[in-house]
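Inputs:
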Amino acid sequence: MEILIEELKTTHQKTLQETDTQLRFTLESLESAVEFVSAMSEDEEMMFQILNEWKDSLHEEKRDITIKKSQKDYHRVLSKVGKHLVSLPSNEIPFLTSKKLERELIDQLIAEHLYRIGDFELADQFVQDSGSKIPEGFRGLMVQMHQILNQLDQRDISSALNWVHQTLQLREKDSVKEKEVKKKLIQETSKNKKEIKMEKEIEIKKEEEKEIEIEIEKDEEQDEKEKGKGKENSQKNNTQQKQIIKRTHSFEFKLHKAFYLNILLRNEIKEAIKYSQKWFKKFALTHMKEIKQLAGCLVYSNDFAKRRFPELFDGSVWLQLHSEFIEIYCLVAEIPSHSPLELLCQAGESAVSVLKKVSGLIPIKTGDELPMEIPVANNFKFHSSFICPVSKERSTQKNPPVLLKCGHVISKSSMKTLLENGKTKFKCPYCPVITNSQIDCIEIKF
Amino acid sequence: MNLQKSLIQPCFEQLSRRLHKQYSLLNKTLAASFKILYSLPKNQNVGCEKIVEQMKKEIKRLSKLQKDLNNYSKDDQLIIKKMQLRLRYHLSLLQVTQKNKTKNEEENEKKKEKENEKEKEKENDKEIKKENETKEEKNMEKEKDKDIEIEKEKEMIIEEKTEKEIEKEKDTKFFQDQVKLRKLELNRKLTEYMFRKGYNKTGAMLTEKHQFLKQLVDQSLFLQGKKVSVSLSKYDLSVPLKWCLINRSKLKKIDSRFEFQLKKQQFIEIMRKGNRKQAINYARKNFPPWVEKCFPEIKRVMGLLAFPTPNEQTSIPIEEKEAFEILPKRYQLLYGEHSWRKLNKLFQREHVVLFGLSESPSIEVEFKAGICAVKTASCHSLHKKIQSTKEKKTEEQKDLEMEKEKKKKNEKDLLLKNFDLLKENKNINTNDNNDGVDRNTNCPTCHPVVNKIAKNYPRNLITHSLIICPLSGQIMTPDNPPMIFPNGNAYSLDEMKKMAEQNNGIVTDIKTNQKFKFTQLRKAFIV
């Protein structure tokens, strides 16, 4: 294809030149004839002689035919290109054609995608043009997210900190009891200052945390017993809240860390110490190792520190912050952290060629499994699935995977087939260990 | 995806159309002027001044022809360069997608890609500057020789500049190039979608932001198409007929019947007003060439002559159906809105197929292919259960109902009786979103809007087990195998180790908040 188009280019230039020169010749001869004739305007006989001579020469040369012929090559190559294009396979995949019902939904998704990128003008224009609806509040969420991200890119952590404190406050309203216990802990720890004592406190805190957890467990068991919609949700939310609190907590630490490193880069050691004294207390329990590292950086000079900890000083900390913030923000807001449109289009790039091949051979029914596997990278896999190595079936709730004594896992149905005539013991298909189906097996939920 | 056809065919069609124009222009002028020149009078009766005047006229005409051809060819050259650019873009995209599969050839392809990127940016700059140049020249109407010289000078300057840029580009990382390419491709698809659907303002905004997209998206094509479809919606047949005339030869190649459909509609419109004679004349003129392919349709349309026309009943607008209830249904349909809509659809399809594009915008096709690749049974099952219940219920009610159904199934299961975990466990396989685990809110097919679309598409076949740790979100490997709790839940070894270290050897099951000792966990080997 490339060769053809290059050929096209060269022939085009050639033909242009040729037609040009031919036309030029005709014009020249015409003009000279006009000159002669006008010069000879007095002598009419001479004039007509010259004219006739000139006409004869025109007939001989047949310039018009040569001009037309000069276009020939270009035509030829162009038609070649056309034939080649026709021979290329079409881009149609029959079962993926667009349907009416999907159009609005796809418009919605595109609007969401545009908001996520941060291009608000474009997104608003699109919403106007297409008339698509977005879930309420989505636009506001994205605006806030991008404001904070812009500030982060300029190495300003104030708005991010505000957001972190807000979310922590909201989440901690639910777990009030935790707060009260924490207050007690903080009161106890405020007396001790040295590191060794901090370690002891850590141990004490661990024990106290266990007590807290047991208390929480009791609460949750009560919740389990009570049937009711709100309380079931609070149970699920508790585990979710814990996760969120943990992650925002560590994110806050990273914010402070990045700012601290920035101060260090400017060689303002006193300021760095003050900053760390102010903010790093909270994180003593969870991030002690990192705090030690950062404190150690105070001692090194700038160049040495850069060599010793290159990953801290080359600006990658801020890039990581950027992507982590997006993830956490979306976690808290309960929306996916990457635009679903973008992810699916990426996955679809390689899928399209496979689908085209197959749809020509086998009719694909919707709602079922594909007849062949589309290879997909690991970052597109979000759900667990277990395939029994014996029967090659996907495990479901009716047919869960079963853990045998030896640690191998097969599906329940294949276990049943291995059991003959009401016996309870059988041999694992992979290793010669005998398992008792009633005692040793556990059904697994992935 | 084989973009080659969709990228290059529009340019090719443009080129061939222009060539056609040029050639016909050339032929006409040559024939006319040479005719006159050959027939210059030999007699002395005609004044020599007139002859001289005629010759001067021909000089003017031929020199005009020369200029026109030159102007045409300049634009042609731009189009050819566009084609080359698009080819290179397509090739570099292919390399990018293939790289995800073969990691071994990275280094060789790095170099190739860098060269491609540099060439692209070279040509990008060249073309933008050349486009500006050509516009200026058209306005000024300078002579050709001077123009060519000026162009050469500017080319020299451009080449110097790009060499400096190349030196700067040597430091850019390979990954950044890949990311940029991907973004560009996504933007290209989005702009194509905008123009196809007629969202012209957003499309214009997108092309303004990313100037390179103007080279890659055929805006004019879609605008033309829009004009025709707008006129069809206004029940006006003149614009579509013109369009057919222009593209007649290509429509023949595709074997399209669009022109016949238009003429059929014209016949119907004449009949609607009641002019039978006019209608018959029209049919005699226009239908014979289509007899081979479309005879049954012709027969049916002519059958309209046998029935009273809407006008003869009462004067009614197009939408009213009551007046022609006398007619059998087939003929009613011909008179109604339905045939206009059919026409519009047919046009959309033909218009796109002519230029080698796919029927549906490429973003839709890739998006749905992605659904087929990413969708799993667990993404879909929540939707199934929602379908069985009424859709007005809230999510909490749905969860309750699901739990009840599952309880009945699980009552027989001895192992699970002891635990009050039924509620939480039921939700794991259906919708991981409610699980208190963060990773799976990210699954794109679980997104509510995508889910609606995804129910119509098949899911990917899975041949190997893949277990994801609910805590860390990482895929479990033989180095990081799942540890099974006595209640059946599984988490990765690394996470359990961490938890045990922090809690004196006691691990808690996050889903049920039960506590066990680390030693009670059993390792599972997934084949």
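Residues 65 and 281 of chain A are 93 Å apart (CA to CA). Flag for discussion at group meeting.
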